[in-house]
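User: Predict the structure for this protein chain, please.
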Amino acid sequence: PLVLYNGCMLSGTYHFPRGFIWGTATSSHQVEGNNRNNDWTVWEEQPGRILNGDKAGQASGWWSGRWKDDLDRAVETGQNAHRLSIEWSRIQPTPDSWDEDAIEFYRQLLRGMQERKLMPYVTLHHFTSPLWVTEFGGWENPEVVEWFAAYTRKIVTALKEYCSLWVTINEPNVYWYSGYVLGVFPPGKQDIPAAFKVAVNLVKAHSAAYRIIHELQPNAQVGLAHNVQTITADRSWLPFDNWGAKIVSQAFNASFPDALRTGKLNMINHSARIPEAIGTQDYFGINYYTHSHFRFQPLNTKGLFHELQFRKDDLLSENGFIANKPLGFYRAIKWACQYGMPVYISENGVEDSKDTMRPRYLVEHIHQVWRAVNYNWPVKGYFHWSLIDNFEWERGWSQRFGLWGLDINTQARQRRPSVDIYQAICQENGIASEMIQRLVPDSYATIFPQ
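Assistant: Here is the predicted structure, written as structure tokens:
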């Protein structure tokens, strides 16, 4: 930045490259509402599956048209892109039927984005699958690769006029880990061999979708939104902590992108060759929320003999789910850049209903994106999670990630102070000392050290 000494304060602006993409992100089941035909709808009906017994219900009302007002708010506050997902269960409600009205809904949504000059960034699978898929064995069934390929061909054919930036599968590592190791996502299994089988099918489905999209749209950019949680040893002097941190990081962070580079999927003591996966990634999408510390716990058999912890002095979100770790974000970006392709920050945000931690989290993490760009690393855009409060999976409505708050009873939106902060950054295409001093003074010394 241009830095001037003015009394005791430094002033200047960290500018991003011209054409940098600024957006927010959502997903279909979390914002649309009234979805009755996917595995999560059934999951929500089962006692004890969702915190406080919450249900998505109306969610954020997008299926009834509230997306229009929310995207208007995005444009009015300086954003130039939005990431959303398609609900497979709406497009293909049964194995042998396609819902043209549902396809038209998404066509109108993307057309509305085009009219608002918001670049669409479209995800094909964001955790939910049609009920008929689960009834046939879900992602453990190798046939899911063909089913997903057919769905991809149908929806991309319908929407390619409006979108050229695609995510095939959102957070495949979270999907297999949460659904088949922890058991907190459907189908609720704790079965590592099944988790590996699912991971193999996810790699194959991504690869098939990648080739179909490029067949239909040769100039498209296709990739994943990959959850990256940087992990280090809690006790650096203990070999078990160091060894365990490396093993977990490889399995969770590296196994999937490595498979797309080498054609071999390695997860702990399982491996498979998937040669068709090689070269099926045009960019690296990073979903980053926090950094954690691996601690070996020999008595924790249910948790695979370890815990991922935060430090006592970490600034934590209101439910203790996320620690403010911007340097971990920088490390995640640096790690992703080793794959030698453009990078998009496809998700980054924090749960904060009172909007007291989010301002600091937001600016300090975006500052790390600027650091990466300043080193000429190929980061092309940033998508904040989320535009509006939405249903947060097994944690229900207990977590509020939105720049805009949501009253789930009235559907009223509440503008949080972080809207002003993100708007200032988007419109400036940078982080200015004046905006930080005015809007997030607690972060001033961190971002503009003297």
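The chain has a mean pLDDT of 95.
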